[in-house]
Design a protein that fits this description.
2 copies of one chain form a homodimer. Chain A is built from 13 helices and 14 strands. The first copy, chain A, folds into 2 domains: 17-259, Aspartate Aminotransferase, domain 2 (3-Layer(aba) Sandwich), CATH 3.40.640.10; 261-379, Aspartate Aminotransferase, domain 1 (Alpha-Beta Complex). In chain A, the strands form 4 sheets. A 7-stranded mixed beta sheet of chain A has the order 2-10-9-8-5-3-4, with helices on both faces. Chain A has a 3-stranded antiparallel beta sheet with strand order 11-14-13. Chain A is 41% helix and 15% strand. The first copy, chain A, starts with 5 loop residues before the first strand and ends with a helix. The interface between A and B is large, with 56 and 56 residues.
Chain lengths: 382, 382
């Protein structure tokens, strides 16, 4: 017998049945009171999860579309910006800002480490940092398993004449993001990560300060033009046909999130991460990410000497129907990444660790069966 | 008792149960062989419906995103283009091309009429038409109920050094579009119209000639960059996380389309349109669109003297649970539009005409009950 595949990946992530069943309903028209009720409920829920008083815009796109939209809306050709890159998704901001003709400065943090707010401060205070109009940071860098100190970076940016733009695509709804309190001007989130939805929607919060920049932006855009979205949002609608099924699903998923409570959700994710790391270490494996910056949503594990980590993943996937992911770019074959975000509980993690133990044994790694599971179980608050 | 709302609108349109049930399945990861099978099946189906040998790209966006993508990929600032506008969606091409800094010439066709290929030829042969690098045409102009002669326009464009770009967002899968044979360089389609899917995906076919232009384009884009989509398509994947649920649904809907057969589908739509027009005329109502250009997918009806057409729509919607749409912009309150595209059969149309008769009576319009239904029934091939 085969169970449904358990996705322990950095997205797409598992979707609760309550959310999925909304997707099978007959479609409704998006210019109706009935749809408006879902849209308003989603928008109210989003504001709570983003912890903002400002509007949160909903785009039909992947998270990358949300990243591009932030760039295209808030800047003009030649604007100097700083990208703090800690991995693949930080680098994506470098690519997008470069493509759009901005003057791009980059702080490259070694992969596996998190950004140091002091280093950012130093850069901005230096002649090279003079006139920076935007600072881009990835919250949860899924390629390495690192979470950046978004609050701390916000502190060094406070009072500066630049926009603070955070890619929280995978973290929003799983780790704390205090958008307003931390002074973030744009937070970008994706549907298919901690928010327990299928892929297809990107959400972007926009501060008053960002709106001022948007009104002056000279980069061409039409589909992603935030001014059109703001105008429509005031009428509780979207400028173009939105993904009706996904919006209805989102209103349901946000209900579940707010029912569990943000604090409880953050605690659950933190505990899952602690348990995962405890298991990894008990099995004699090495963590890839510096533990000071370890993400609550994804754990990266170094391939042990002489072990084909991709083979381990393959066995987990084909024999035990648990999908985890490998390394990207130069980390290919060198790490394994276990996602524990969204609709994931302690049993899911224990199942994953069990499969990891069994699969490691099959490729010749020495361990005493149950070591990882026991360590996880002792750490889990279940 | 209330039945589910019947959408007789220009989209979103009704979705078959077989398609909807795929949306409720647990999510699968997009970088897997299992997903690849759906993606490949969708792509093969799309090529058949587009009637092209060239790749069809899948974007997570509304149709408008597809329109912008066509503009941003194939042109550079200052390029001269011609937009043939027959309504709201033609005007949207004017807005997008203008926003992206192109040198935009416009042929404005009176609303309710279709474009005359000879007029386009004359323009292109005139000094003003010299050096036009792209011609944009809407196939099915849902705002007026007009279908443009895409084949005929293709003939006057043949041999010219300009790209032929067709918005077939609402028509593809409902009316014939012979992409390759008619020499169309880019055809843009949307998921939520004749293709019987929820909104959220745009599809764009790209000819060899268009690829050459794309390689030279200097407009900034990242999320919609077709070169990235082409590269990924060669590996049977997408550059960014695609809308997994919608792709799976699309592979199912395309199966249904190909099973019914394109010729049968086109004949069904044409017959529905003929029956709808027969009913409208039998009821003494006036068609808005010039019958020479009447769309097979949507019928626009003029408000009779002294009749509040929006009130008629309201009764159809609230009392009979059938949704049709009103006029846009200067046609607000002046016309009603009945969509008959996608998952619509003769019974759906008869139901709509019945509700139209009953609602017209309620607002004081004189008619003999059954006149429209009988005319439709006599025309329908059921």
């Amino acid at each position: 017998m085969r169970k449904d595949k358990l996705l322990m990946t950095p997205g797409p992530t598992m979707i609760p049945h309550k959310v999925r069943e909304t997707m099978a309903r007959q479609i409704i028209h998006h210019r109706t009171k009935e749809f408006e009720r879902y849209f308003v409920k989603m928008n109210e829920g989003l504001k709570k999860v983003f912890q903002t008083q400002n509007p949160v815009l909903t785009l039909v796109s992947s998270g990358t579309g949300g990243m591009e939209a932030a760039v295209a809306n808030a800047f003009s050709p030649g604007d100097k910006v700083l990208v703090v890159s800690t991995g693949v998704f930080g680098d994506r901001f470098v690519k997008i800002t470069t493509r759009f003709g901005l003057d791009v400065k980059v702080i490259n943090v070694p992969w596996g480490c998190g950004a140091d707010p002091e280093e950012i401060k130093k850069f901005l205070d230096s002649p090279e940092g003079d006139g920076v109009k935007g600072v881009f940071v990835t919250h949860n860098e899924t390629s390495t398993g690192v979470a950046n100190d978004i609050k701390g970076i916000g502190e060094v940016l406070k009072g500066r004449d630049c926009l603070y733009i955070v890619d929280a695509i995978s973290s929003l709804g799983g780790m704390e993001v205090k958008t307003d309190e931390w002074g973030i001007d744009m937070v970008i989130a994706g549907s298919q990560k901690a928010l327990m939805l299928p892929p297809g929607l990107a959400f972007v919060s926009v501060s008053e300060k960002a709106w001022k920049a948007i009104e002056k932006s000279k980069l061409p855009k039409f589909y992603f033009d935030f001014l059109a979205y703001r105008k429509s949002l005031n009428d509780n609608t979207t400028p173009y046909t939105t993904a009706v099924s996904l919006v209805i699903a989102a209103s349901e998923a946000l209900d579940m999130i707010l029912e569990e409570g943000l604090e409880n959700i953050f605690a659950r994710h933190r505990n899952l991460a602690e348990a995962c790391r405890a298991a990894v270490k008990a099995l004699g494996l090495e963590l890839f990410a510096d533990e000071r910056y370890a993400s609550d949503l994804i754990t990266s594990i170094k391939a042990p000497e002489g072990i084909d980590i991709d083979q381990v993943r393959k066995i987990m996937n084909l024999q035990y129907d648990i999908m985890v992911t490998g390394g990207q770019q130069h980390l290919k074959g060198k790490i394994m990444r276990i996602g524990h975000m969204g609709y994931v509980d302690g049993f899911d993690l224990l199942k994953t660790i069990t499969a990891l133990e069994l699969s490691l044994l099959k490729v010749g790694y020495k361990l005493e069966l149950g070591t990882g599971v026991t360590a996880a179980l002792k750490t889990l608050k279940m």
